[in-house]
Amino acid sequence: xxxxxxxxxxxxxxxxxxxxxxxxxxxxxxxWVPVEVRAAALNHxxxxxxxxxxxxxxRLPMILGCDAAGTTxxxxxxxxxxVIRDPSFTGPDETLDPRRSLLSERHQGTLAERVWVPPANxxxxxxxxxxxxxxxxxxxxxxxxxxxxxxxxxRPGETVLVQGAGGGVATALIMLxxxxxxxxxxxxxxxxxxxxxxxxxADRAFPSGExxxxxxxxxMETVGAATWSHSIxxxxxxxxxxxxxxxxxxxxxxxxxxxxxxxxxxxQGSTMGTAEELRRLAAMLVTTGIRPPIDRVLPLGExxxxxxxxxxGTVFGKIVIEP
Length: 323
Ligand SMILES: NC(=O)c1ccc[n+]([C@@H]2O[C@H](COP(=O)([O-])OP(=O)(O)OC[C@H]3O[C@@H](n4cnc5c(N)ncnc54)[C@H](OP(=O)(O)O)[C@@H]3O)[C@@H](O)[C@H]2O)c1
What we know:
Elements: E1 2-6, E2 18-22, E3 33-41, H1 44-51, E4 62-63, E5 67-72, E6 77-80, E7 83-84, E8 101-102, E9 114-117, E10 122-124, H2 131-135, H3 137-151, E11 159-163, H4 168-179, E12 183-188, H5 191-200, E13 204-207, E14 216-221, H6 228-234, E15 235-243, H7 257-262, E16 266-269, H8 275-288, E17 294-299, H9 303-312, E18 318-322
Parallel strand pairs: 11-12, 11-14, 12-13, 14-15, 15-16, 17-18
Antiparallel strand pairs: 1-2, 1-4, 3-5, 3-9, 3-18, 5-6, 6-10, 7-8
Bound molecules: NADP nicotinamide-adenine-dinucleotide phosphate.
């Protein structure tokens, strides 16, 4: 079947490691069910995989993609939850399973005509969402939902700073935060992307690194090294930084340890979310009417165009791939 996959790993030129071609797969684990992919979405995770981060060479070839919406053999419209728990894990929160993986890490991903998953990883797609909209939810939007509503401790009326304006997680944070009654401030390297963030619902946009008019209750970090010091400086005493990613690198010039204990701040890691959170997120989109901004929709055969845009950092919202 046609698939976009990592044929090799290339830390410096991830696009060169991508192949879009027919690929025969080994049999899926017993009990897993096929989903015909109607739409999939790209994440920065797919670029990390091509660079070899979290994907060792012995697992190649590996179909990329964490996100999909599609139909099961009996015609059920579903959204695929990308967090695969280890069979030995019995806790209620799969993000706490130390042996969990995401689709495309140990098991073949979603950028293909079909993907196989455990039945517990399927949730019903609300009829109000298109397959393309639903495909945007399982990684970036779910991560944003958990950062805001599970990890941050934010309450309606408080102020949140979102670092970066255009990424999939950043755009989700802006729209979900706005609809939850938060005052949302964003930073961007590009004034035009800042303006687009305001159109999505942010109250104000600031150039990356600029001093803010007042300190904020929480910061949502996906950028990492480039914005870490600004995030710590932006927080009020007792505030929280929630971090889920390090697009610009994982080693900031300063860890800001003194400010973290003296002010005293809370640093909270956050990763993906549970299937139950994915259900609630889909329900929130139905009740609020908000929809993921889609930068572009590409046929699977042209997936490399989407990867190139993601690597260049020129994407605003999600890139959807249709097999
Ligand atoms: N832990 C998890 O479960 C999880 C889930 C999803 C994503 N992530 C991670 O979160 C990060 C974001 O992912 P994404 O898919 O939303 O897309 P992305 O393409 O990584 O988004 C890039 C974002 O970072 C900003 N940015 C990039 N480089 C920057 C720099 N040098 N200085 C300042 N801002 C910079 C961009 O904002 P502007 O262009 O507006 O400045 C944009 O908002 C990735 O690292 C990803 O791996 C983690």
